[in-house]
Backbone:
């Protein structure tokens, strides 16, 4: 029997239920800006070993909660665990980002992809979820996550990070049926992976569509949003007697928020290029919103951070259904005390918006 949840503000906000203040967490809150994270990563030897060692993944998941009054923990992992489990060869090179040793660029490559049993090939992730839930002891909810099929597909096809997405866009326009088969395969694997995280103890899940904003509107709907919607439709949406909320986040996707609100997700992440008030009008309060402070604000002095937090809260306005977050992940060179200034400002400034 899991420990009762002591702080459920995050889950309530995602379901647009009343909360006394706006809950807050940070994308990449367990990361390189924290000296304790860098020490644990050094202990692991490399990033992949850190992800694949449940006790260490638990340690770095909990580190930001020891510093800040956050309202959620997020599983420490990576969006490329699925390609790694599919045997495509994943390496993280210092300063270079991820590299896929065996990119998928042909119909034959797609046919050769194996099926995925997350409790077998990705057991280390589920073990990490179970350890983290135990160690959290009900303090805050745990978020599980995965990359969107389109975003994971960009790495699988390109072989790593890309600026112009030459190979996958060549496939999108030149061999769309092949790309659809690849994305369908990744969708099945991602659905099973997220459901396994929920079964292991994740209390909310988030789908990161980092590269959806690189698509045209029509291509976004066909090659990204369609598959995320399929995942949402097939997720297990209850555990421990509570609903398991789902968050979709497309970086650069502000123009498509109304379409995203039709996905069945409970909440949408919004990056800093879209005003939250504009986003709220676009979704007509059908879903909660998460965001959206520009991560670079955290380079500024605490007084400026506080002012910008106030601006974001005012942008969403009165009412429930807002989770405060950065518009993307926290930068590695942000001073930890500046993150504290942001969290403190949310705690201090948000209660009047919930009266």
Residues:
């Amino acid at each position: 029997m899991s420990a009762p949840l002591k702080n459920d503000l995050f889950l309530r906000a995602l379901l647009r239920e009343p909360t006394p203040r706006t809950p807050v967490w940070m994308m990449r809150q367990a990361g390189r800006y924290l000296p304790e994270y860098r020490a644990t990563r050094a202990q692991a030897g490399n990033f992949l070993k850190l992800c694949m060692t449940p006790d260490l993944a638990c340690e770095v998941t909990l580190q930001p909660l020891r510093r800040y009054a956050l309202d959620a923990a997020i599983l420490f992992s990576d969006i490329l665990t699925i390609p790694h489990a599919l045997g495509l060869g994943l390496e993280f090179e210092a300063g270079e980002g991820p590299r896929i040793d065996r990119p998928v660029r042909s119909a034959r490559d797609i046919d050769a992809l194996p099926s995925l049993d997350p409790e077998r090939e990705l057991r280390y992730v589920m073990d990490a979820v179970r350890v983290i839930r135990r160690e959290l002891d009900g303090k805050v909810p745990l978020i599980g996550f995965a990359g969107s099929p389109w975003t994971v597909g960009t790495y699988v096809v390109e072989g790593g990070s890309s600026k112009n997405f030459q190979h996958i866009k060549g496939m999108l326009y030149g061999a769309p049926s092949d790309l659809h088969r690849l994305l369908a395969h990744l969708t099945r694997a991602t659905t099973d992976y997220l459901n396994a995280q929920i079964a292991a103890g994740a209390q909310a899940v988030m789908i990161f569509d980092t590269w959806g904003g690189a698509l045209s509107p029509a291509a976004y709907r066909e090659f990204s949003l369609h598959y995320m919607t399929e995942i949402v439709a097939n997720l297990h949406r209850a555990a421990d007697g509570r609903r398991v909320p789902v968050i979709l986040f497309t970086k650069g996707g502000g123009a498509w928020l109304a379409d995203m609100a039709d996905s069945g997700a409970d909440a949408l992440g919004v990056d800093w290029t879209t005003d939250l008030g504009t986003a709220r009008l676009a979704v007509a309060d059908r879903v909660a919103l998460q965001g959206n402070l520009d991560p670079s604000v955290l380079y500024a002095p605490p007084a400026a951070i506080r002012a910008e937090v106030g601006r974001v809260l005012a942008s969403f306005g009165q009412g429930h259904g807002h989770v405060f977050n950065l518009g993307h992940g926290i930068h590695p060179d942000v001073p930890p005390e500046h993150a504290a200034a942001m969290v403190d400002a949310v705690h201090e400034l948000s209660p009047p918006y919930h009266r």
Remarks:
- The CA atoms of residues 166 and 214 lie 12 Å apart.
- The first helix runs from residue 9 to 14.
- The two ends are 35 Å apart (CA to CA).
